[in-house]
């Protein structure tokens, strides 16, 4: 695999329509990014892959889509109002702002070089505050949620009763979250607006360790199913000084990005902290009664929390490759797993005449019922293949003059560049079979 830099990924994303700078025509907005035609397909496919693995394939996990705006007491109960702060300092000379725990306060300002110019550290709450209704005062304050988990906790009883679930069970959600981060960097890795894929699993307190270890293993296996290179993944166990105030045990799944090892997902044993706090602040009983054992208790929660937008960057970084062909030409290819590739199959007519283009257009329309497709009739076939390689399309179909004689087409595989003749009636099944049997090159 080629060594990839973040600049290479950023350039490819803009050139090929994966990610654009938000409000670029006005100079852009820091920490905000827009997902283009291919980027939104990639992001949606990753979300769908996660949802299938976490919800559709499991009997004891259901889905939820909670509102972004919630009662302000939710964030008091969760501890975010009290604990969700960063220590900040300003340079008195250049007015630059820094996190106090990430710079040497005895050193000169990193921006202007001024000495002894830092203000005293002060706490800065990371939640975005707004007002609900026409009047702006303290009684109308609400927050844009900094995480999706709390929406699950306050709906725990609703999901439990309506779905007739029994402990152990889980609730999954994908949604937007907002954090007023002072330091945003590394493209879409750390931004103020992002999306999370979270699952909260409710268990008997005596079985918390068993389920923590289970989900730790399951979540690592998920990335391998997605085709991510195993050598780029690792666990990071949180020590006592790293644990959040609610956690009994925590582990990160880290990926080696172009800028180093960083957190991709967290698996946490949150104990009964969340349900106990919401019971206390709301006055509602959030305990669970086991009909079989006649025991009443507050469930412990094992959380799996992954960043969707962060996963997009991980997938792009992991899929990027460059190779030199026998003719000396360099090929850039994104080796996406076919289930998450923005385009599954591209269809080309060899020439734009003699009915080849009409045949290819009709075939592409038929394939739309089964796959994400793309039609391209401009340029030499080799160039069209290279364009699809660069955006990660795993399969290409070429309609040529033999097609008009016997209804066979050329099916070309991205990773191996192998080409085979397939009858038109067997194209769908051939691609579906290839997806089922997909193995990434080098794994």
UniProtKB/TrEMBL annotation:
Chain ranges of the Aminoacyl-transfer RNA synthetases class-II family profile domain: 7-338
Broadest EC class assigned to this enzyme: ligase
A family per Pfam: HGTP_anticodon
Ligand binding (substrate): 99, 147, 194-198, 303-307
Swiss-Prot/TrEMBL GO biological process terms: diadenosine tetraphosphate biosynthetic process; glycyl-tRNA aminoacylation
HAMAP family the record matches: Gly_tRNA_synth_B
Name of the featured protein: Glycine--tRNA ligase
Source organism of the structure: Winmispira thermophila (strain ATCC 700085 / DSM 6578 / Z-1203) (Spirochaeta thermophila)
């Amino acid at each position: 695999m080629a060594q990839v830099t973040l600049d290479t990924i950023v350039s490819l994303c803009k050139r090929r329509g994966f990610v654009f700078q938000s409000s670029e025509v006005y100079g852009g907005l820091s920490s905000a990014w827009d997902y283009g035609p291919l980027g939104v397909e990639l992001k949606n496919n990753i979300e769908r892959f996660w949802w299938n693995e976490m919800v559709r394939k499991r009997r004891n996990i259901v889905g939820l889509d909670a509102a972004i705006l919630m009662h302000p007491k939710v964030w008091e109960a969760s501890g975010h109002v009290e604990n969700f702060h960063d220590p900040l300092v300003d340079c008195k000379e250049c007015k630059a702002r820094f996190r106090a725990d990430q710079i040497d306060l005895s050193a000169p300002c990193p921006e202007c070089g001024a000495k002894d110019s830092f203000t005293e550290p002060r706490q800065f709450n990371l939640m975005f505050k707004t007002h609900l209704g026409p009047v702006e005062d303290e009684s109308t304050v609400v927050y844009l949620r900094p995480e999706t988990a709390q929406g699950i906790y306050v709906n725990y009883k609703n999901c439990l009763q309506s779905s007739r679930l029994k402990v152990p069970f889980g609730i999954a959600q994908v949604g937007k979250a907002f954090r007023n981060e002072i330091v945003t960097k590394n493209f879409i890795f750390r931004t103020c607006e992002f999306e999370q894929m979270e699952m909260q699993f409710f268990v008997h307190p005596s079985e918390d360790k068993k389920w923590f270890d289970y989900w730790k293993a399951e979540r690592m296996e998920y990335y391998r199913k997605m085709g991510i290179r195993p050598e780029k993944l690792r666990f990071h166990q949180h020590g006592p000084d790293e644990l959040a105030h609610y956690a009994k045990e925590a582990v990160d799944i880290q990926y080696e990005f172009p800028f180093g090892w960083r957190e991709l997902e967290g698996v946490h044993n949150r104990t009964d902290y969340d349900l106990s706090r919401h019971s206390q602040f709301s006055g509602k009983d959030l305990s669970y009664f086991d009909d079989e054992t006649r025991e009443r208790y507050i469930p412990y929660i094992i959380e799996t929390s992954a960043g969707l937008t962060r996963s997009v960057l991980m997938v792009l970084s992991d899929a990027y490759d460059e190779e030199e062909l026998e003719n000396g030409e360099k090929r850039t290819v994104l080796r996406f797993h076919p289930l998450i590739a923005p385009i599954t199959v591209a269809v080309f007519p060899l020439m734009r005449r003699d009915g080849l283009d009409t045949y290819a257009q009709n075939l592409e329309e038929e394939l739309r019922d089964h796959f994400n497709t793309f039609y391209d009739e401009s340029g030499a076939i080799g160039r069209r293949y290279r364009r699809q390689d660069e955006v990660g399309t795993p399969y290409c179909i070429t309609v040529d003059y033999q097609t008009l004689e016997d209804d066979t087409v050329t099916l070309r595989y991205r990773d191996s560049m192998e080409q085979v003749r397939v009858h038109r009636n067997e194209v769908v099944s051939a691609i579906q079979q290839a997806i089922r049997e997909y193995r990434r090159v080098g794994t």
